[in-house]
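WARN retry 2 of 3 for item q-0093 after timeout on previous attempt; input resubmitted unchanged.
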Amino acid sequence: MKTSKWMDLRTRFRHILFAIVGLIILVIIATSGFMVLENIGLFDAFYLTIISLMTVGYGDIVPETDAGRSFALILIPLGVAVVTYAMGAVASYFIEHQLSVKVWNKRMEHTIKHLEGHIVVCGLGRVGRQVFEQLKEENVQVVYIHDSEEEMVESLPEGTLRIVGSPLNDGVLKEANVKKARGIIATLPSDSDNVFITIKAKALNEKIEVVARVENDGSEEVLLRAGASRVVNPSTIGGRELVSSVLRPEGTDLVNLLIHTKEKEQSLEEVTLQDACTFVGKTLKEAAIRSEMGITVLAIRRGEKLISNPSADEKLQKQDILIIYGEKEVSETFKKKCQG
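OK item q-0093 returned
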């Protein structure tokens, strides 16, 4: 979602800045004028300037010369105008800021309420921020849930769909429209919290894909039994990559390039062959996926079986999940063909 124009307050902030600068210049000019025209010291001239601008008029210090009175006649209405403008600009800034936030929140709530097929991310800690960095490169709508508004403002750009609250709260998950979500990513540092989120998410949406972070090896099985589709241990993955980077550096670089590349021309995707897909019943050679479309089929997931580097004679079946690599635009076209 694009940044809301309601949240852009830079123009009103400039009004405040101009008013403050104008007021400072006016005070300097008036103080200097009273010092020259009334032949008084700096402090007395500054004091006379302030009470004149604020229209207080204590009467303890007043212009005594005709030139000083004439100068005051010009200064007072000009000062009232500048001070009034400055106070109005400041009040307007804070009032409209509060109003804009409320309007944006209402629009965001309405948008989230009508989302379908989105992803919900629970937590914006160290792992959650990395999830954000990866998801912002993808063409998918995401709702972020975190219990700290300050950390959200710091981590997420304006316009990002977000909910301030605990993802452990059933009402917050409902507000994130988990019922219609495609998937949920639980990134909290506590395994028990991620188990709780998994159970709650599955209760709201049985078909939702749940990917959960885990820190302790013993918690992996618990999360899978709770309904998590995938369980990821950041420490385990980090350890594997460190070893692979030493023993197989070129291979590790290639895998990272395939998975984590930010180049939009190439992408690693997965697509399910629907019943009406014209490729069903054909071999990879007959489907001419590589020769005609330039797409490489890296693997085929068929039920519980994973066929890596499938041969040209491999016959495609209904509900096969193809892991493909190729140009992004061509991959999107291929996905549409697989839908039939």
